[in-house]
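[job 0412] stage=complex_fold ligand=flavin mononucleotide status=START
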Amino acid sequence: MFESMIAKYYCRIHESLAQDIHGLHFYNPIGLASGFDKNAEIVRPLASLGFGYLELGSVTQMPQEGNEKPRMFRHVEEESLQNAMGFNNIGARGMLAHLKEVYPFCIPLGINIGKNKNIVQGDSLKNYELSLDTLKDYGDYFAFNLSSPNTPGLRDLQNESFVADLINMAKGVTNKPIFIKISPDMEIDSMLTVCDSAIKHGVSGIIATNTSIDYTLVSHPAKRNEQCFGGISGKALTSRSREILKILGQNFHKKTTLISVGGICDSNEVYERIKLGANLVQILSSMVYEGPTIIARMSNELAEKLKADGFNHINDAIGVAVQ
Ligand SMILES: Cc1cc2nc3c(=O)[nH]c(=O)nc-3n(C[C@H](O)[C@H](O)[C@H](O)COP(=O)(O)O)c2cc1C
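[job 0412] stage=complex_fold status=DONE, emitting structure tokens
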């Protein structure tokens, strides 16, 4: 009841923002990035804020506690966060119980799958497979997280051969869209090779990017035992994430779906990402700093900006700045 009152206020339909992608209807392109609702606990309240879709998780096959606290820090002046959560979550079966209460849902629900910390690297594929198999009927798309800096060895899975195995495995389990989520810290050549491999094997799209371990992005990074740790998100990540999208747009615009995430703090940045080739965007840190009204504001202003620039529909603007 309370949620529907909020939704009436925040969920404005702008026909110019609606897209059908991989058989899913997105009434606007602004999604929640994974990490905010790791266990699918607050799906209805989040949707009432005006998101076009939600990416839930990361979930792992078995429940796990995550890293020791403190594991989340604010860099207020830089409107940025540093987190080392480490996939604290209730596990795929726990999430499934929550999803059964809401699924199918009024907006697309993506499920972001991570890997348990305590398994040997050689069992990674099986670990992803078991989670996907548990959740396959209760999500609209699935994203494999290969890029959290907080699970040792996870980023090593961003290689051509693992990505090929992962997509092949996923295609054997479900016909639903499959995405991979990549790091902002890869060498550009390796990033392109991994994305190429994913596309060749039938991935639906690339989500870029996760948090960064470049601690020069903030002036006073948090340390444990004298070592910087965790990943940086928010405004400090804006230009890096935008640069990566630019390169992905140059190489893969129209070849795959691009979802841009990282330091998207206002409607100007949403619009920039769309023009650089993003079909959809996601936010997390800017919601922490700006509050929950940011989603409706971003989508209302995006609709106005498109109109002011003479675009009848978002599809006409996607990729116009790809060079
Ligand atoms: C507290 C926190 C937890 C996160 N947890 C996850 C996660 O579980 N899985 C994942 O793929 N990304 C996770 N992320 C990364 C975000 O999804 C996103 O890629 C990153 O924060 C950049 O976007 P932003 O600048 O809008 O926050 C997390 C980020 C934060 C700040």
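The chain has a mean pLDDT of 97.
[job 0412] exit 0
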